[in-house]
Structures are given as C-alpha cells and as structure tokens.
Write a structure and sequence with these properties.
Elements (H helix, E strand, L loop, with lengths): L6 H4 L23 E3 L7 H10 L4 E2 L10 H14 L7 H8 L4 E3 L8 H7 L4 E4 L4 H16 L2 H9 L4 H16 L4 H22 L5 E3 L6 H8 L14 H42 L1
Parallel strand pairs: 1-3, 1-4, 2-3, 4-5
Helix pairs in contact: 3-8, 6-9, 6-11, 7-8, 7-11
C-alpha cells in the first residue's frame, strides 16, 4: 500500500505550506485526552496516525515542518526548564501550545517534558510503547543521533534559516538541555541509560489506572478499549520505518537546498545588479 502512495501522500507534512500559527498565544479548544510517552523511535508517528484516525487530533514534532513557529514555543519551554531563562510552563502555557490538540505523541523535544505533561494534564490517559533496547538503539542511532550530528544537515540548517535552521536549533536545545551532551559520541554513550531512566520515570509517576503498556503489534483492540472508543475494522497505521525515515531526510535536504538558494539569491541579486550597473556605466 505504501509503495502505491505518492511521495506527497507519504510525507504530507513536508509538502504543506507554512501555517504560520502562533502557539504561544493559543487557548485550549478541546480536552487533552491521551499522551503517548514512549521514547522516540518506538512508534510515535504510528500512534499519532492512530489517534488521528480515532478522532483525537494529535501533536507530534513533525508539525515543525508545516509550522516552524512551533519551535519558538518549544524553545521557550526548554530555555525555562533547562537554562532557567523565563518562567517554567504552567497549564496556561501548555494550553497555548497544545490547546487545539486532544492527544500528544511525544517526539523531541516533547519527550523531555513527560513529567510536566503528566502533572499538568492529570485527566489525560498515558500510552507507553517500549521496544527491545538493542533494536531501539539501532533505530534511534540511525534515524536520530547520526543525522543530528551530520555536517551536511548542520550546514543545511545554516543555509535554510526558515525551516531547517529553527528545527535544528530546537533539537540542539533538547540534546544539550535534557541529554546534557555536546557530541555524537556522548549521545551514543548515554542513549541506553536515557531510555531506561525515561521508562522508569513514566511508570513511577503515572497511576496504573491511567497507563496502558501497549505493543504496536496488538493493533486496535487494547488501545480502543483503553480510550473508550469503538474497535475499528481498518488496518492499524504503520509508518516511519527506516526506509520512510531515509526518504524523509532526503526530502528535507532537497527542500533545504531550495530554500537556501532562495536565501542566497535574495542577497546576491542586488549585488549582481549593482555590479552590472557599474560595468554598464564604465563601458558606455
């Protein structure tokens, strides 16, 4: 099925015009019902799709690419939490950021705020997906750590200050603030401990009646029963495997190059025009 979809259908968030939504001044318009607090690369995007199918509009950091302004709000939350700059987010600020969503599937940087979100939204249920740590690490290293420290993608962040730059800078805050690392090697060495500590914390702070330990292969039944929804007779979404992620990164690189060339053109055109005018004046 996936192979029959167009590239735009496989990655709709990368082909959506900038929504230009300011999430620092929003309000809550729907109740927060459920939060998936599994670590990145444990099916966060599949759960996002599943929540959406169930009618629970779900936030995931993939939103950054269709609304780069989100990075501003997340940067404010991270600066307050990790650097002591500004006020720690209360329910008011979280509602401003997440108020139009009734679900969250925590990817970077949201995963760093698991306890904050559990405390702020005590009415919300929590889903937890855990993978075998070795298979998880292999996926996380390939899809998150290596690209994050890639010289090419870091260059593209400078080259494209509209989308890739803000997304990169937001993720760097996450790494340096929550992980407290400054290199690929440090992140790789710390990854398994971060993974174990995160799951231990979620199980410690979430009451059992609010928590579903979910396995992606279990499809709809346990998830729908937990959320009080009718069990669906459709395929459970499965997205963002390594091939999907590799394609995703290639699209980002191409899009970033196009944006960067536009940026260069914006400054180069006046220089070329002045130079051409000077040459014509001297020549004639």
């Amino acid at each position: 099925m996936a192979s029959q979809l167009s590239i735009e259908q496989r990655h709709p968030e990368l082909f959506t015009s900038d929504k230009n939504i300011d999430r620092q001044h929003g309000i809550r318009t729907v109740p927060m019902e459920v939060m998936n607090l599994g670590f990145p690369r444990t099916g966060t995007m599949s759960l996002q799709n599943a929540f959406n199918i169930l009618g629970l509009t779900c936030y995931h950091s993939i939103q950054f690419f269709s609304n780069p302004k989100d990075c501003v709000a997340w940067n404010a939350a991270q600066d307050a939490k990790f650097l002591g700059k500004g006020d720690i987010f209360t329910r008011r600020e979280w509602d401003a950021l997440l108020g139009s969503f009734s679900a969250v599937s925590a990817d970077p940087p949201a995963i760093a705020f698991a306890k904050d979100l559990v405390d702020v939204y005590p009415e919300a249920k929590v889903v937890l997906v855990e993978r075998n740590i070795d298979s998880w690490y292999s996926s996380f290293n390939a899809a998150v750590i290596i690209p994050m420290w890639s010289p090419l993608l870091n260059f593209l962040g400078d080259f494209d200050p509209w989308i890739i730059g803000p997304v990169r800078d937001c993720h760097y805050r996450w790494v340096r603030g929550w992980w407290k690392v400054n290199s690929k090697k440090e992140m790789q060495e710390k990854a398994r401990d971060m993974y174990r500590e995160h799951y231990a914390q979620v199980r410690r702070i979430v009451p059992k009646e609010r928590l579903l330990e979910y396995k992606l292969g279990d499809a709809w039944e346990p998830l729908c029963e937990f959320l009080g929804k009718p069990i669906l007779d459709v395929l459970f979404p499965k997205v963002n495997d390594q091939d999907h992620m590799d394609e995703h990164l290639r699209i980002i690189a191409v899009r970033s190059m196009k944006n960067g060339l536009m940026n260069v053109g914006r400054y180069a055109t006046p220089v070329i025009a002045v130079g051409l005018g000077w040459w014509i004046w001297r020549k004639f």
